[in-house]
Amino acid sequence: MAWETEHKRLDAAIVLAGVQAGIGDPAKARYLVAMRDAPLAGREVLSVPVGTLMLTREWSDWRNGEWWWIQSVYVPPAHRRQGVFAALYRHVEQQARDADGVVGLRLYVERENDNAQRTYRALGMDDAGYHIFEAEF
């Protein structure tokens, strides 16, 4: 995903440790995986992952509530444009609306990723007007 979207090569050991830390501590992250049934020989069916995202939380003192950030979105090319991300998004949106103290959903997207931006707009999200600055260590 990092290579496809940002042309970054990641250290597999660091990513594995990061995902394990996120799975091990819900205060750090929550992962959602979309599954689809795929027929096998005969009547057997195998559920296969077709998309994923990670949720993190950010406290907003301005709103006295939490923003839920959608991050690490990935849908394999063979499953894109089939509603996979929309299903994940709608699930997260409903959870956020049902949770006390959640003020909204946010995500960031690369400026050149027009397909993703169209998808997010179609789901009711708007450009928040921010640029992201960072100091990476």
Helix-and-strand structural type: alpha+beta
Major β-sheet strand ordering: 1-2-3-4
What's the N-to-C terminus distance?
A: 21 Å
Largest sheet: 4 strands, mixed
Number of domains: 1
Overall body shape: globular
SSE order in H/E notation?
Answer: HHEEEHEH
- How would you name the CATH homologous superfamily? Gcn5-related N-acetyltransferase (GNAT)
Percent range for helical residues? 25-40%
CATH topology: Aminopeptidase
User: What percent strand?
Assistant: 25-35%
The CATH class is identified as Alpha Beta
User: So, CATH architecture?
Assistant: 3-Layer(aba) Sandwich
Mean pLDDT: 93
Q: For the CA atoms, what is the radius of gyration?
A: 17 Å
Number of DSSP helical runs: 4
Number of strands: 4
Low-confidence stretches: none
GO molecular function: acyltransferase activity, transferring groups other than amino-acyl groups
Protein name: GNAT family N-acetyltransferase
Pfam family, one: Acetyltransf_1
Keywords: Transferase
How are the secondary structure elements laid out?
Layout: H1 2-6, H2 12-24, E1 30-39, E2 45-60, E3 65-74, H3 84-98, E4 102-107, H4 114-122
Parallel strand pairs: 3-4
Antiparallel strand pairs: 1-2, 2-3
What does this structure look like?
The longest helix has 15 residues, at 84-98. With 137 residues, this protein is α+β, with helices and mostly antiparallel strands. The protein has one domain (2-122): 3-Layer(aba) Sandwich (Aminopeptidase), CATH 3.40.630.30. It contains four helices and four strands, in the order ααβββαβα. It has a four-stranded mixed sheet, with helices on one face.
